[in-house]
Amino acid sequence: MFVIGNWKMNGNRELAQALTEALREHADELNQVQVGVCPPAVLLASLNEAAAETELMIGGQDVNEHQSGAHTGEHSTELLSNFGAEFTLIGHSERRQFYGDSMARVAAKVAATLANSQLTVVLCVGESEAERQAEQTFAVITEQLETALQGQTGDCLERLIIAYEPVWAIGTGLTASPEQAQQVHEFIRSWLVQKFGAEAANVALLYGGSVKPENAEALFAQQDIDGGLIGGASLQVDAFIAIAKAAATRSK
Ligand SMILES: O=C(CO)COP(=O)(O)O
Known about the structure:
- This protein is globular.
- α7 crosses α8 and α9 runs parallel beside α10.
- An 8-stranded parallel beta barrel has the order 1-2-3-4-5-6-7-8, surrounded by 6 helices.
- It has 10 helices and 8 strands.
- It has one domain: TIM Barrel, CATH 3.20.20.70.
- 40% of the residues lie in helices and 16% in strands.
- 1,3-dihydroxyacetonephosphate (13P) binds next to β8.
C-alpha cells in the first residue's frame, strides 16, 4: 500500500521537520506502507535532509520533458533525482487544467521520465464532473491512459503507478464513494492488463480526491485500491499519519 502526500503550493521547512519526526515516531506501525511526499520543488532539499533515516520517499509534483536548457521555471528529471526524488507526479489535473499540460505534453513527460531517469512515474488521470454526468468517465480515462502511455512497452511497468483522481472530488470535500472509486480502478487495471499483459496487474493504483482519516479505511478496503494520493489532508501531520495507518490495516 502507498500513501503519497501532494503538498501542491503549500508547506514549508517546519512541515518537513514535523512530518519526518512523526514518521520516525510511528515507524513500527507504518512499516508495511510506502509513504511518500511531493513537496514544492524548492522544498525537496529540506525534505530530503529531514527524511534522513526514515523510509519516506520524496517525489516531484511535475517534471519537464526536456533534459536541460532554457526552460525558465521548470525542473528536469535530473534535478529532481539530484535532490532525492524517487518518483514524480505527471498529468495532475491542476496542471492539465491551468498550466497547459495537454495530453501530448503529458505523454512527452512520461516518455522522457521513463527513458532518461530512474524515477517512477505516478500518472494522474480523472474525469471532470461534466464528463461523469455525461457518462464519459471510462472514455476519458481510456483516452488519458492511451495517450500518456503510447509507445510504451511492458518495460515501463516496474516504474509506473496510476493515480485516479476524479476532478470533481479534488479539494471539494466530495469523495468518490468506495464503490465508485473501485469501479474505475478495476477498469484501469483491466485496461493495463489488456495493453501490457498479465504482469500489469501488479501496477499500484492510487485513489485521490478528498481522502481524509474518516474515509480512508473504506476506500483502502476496496480490492483495486492500492493506496491514496492525498492533497489537503497531507498538510496536517496527524491526519496524514492517520491515513497512513488506515493503509497499514490493509497491507498488500
Ligand atoms: O489532488 C489531490 C492530490 O493530488 C487531492 O487533493 P485533496 O485531497 O485536497 O482533494
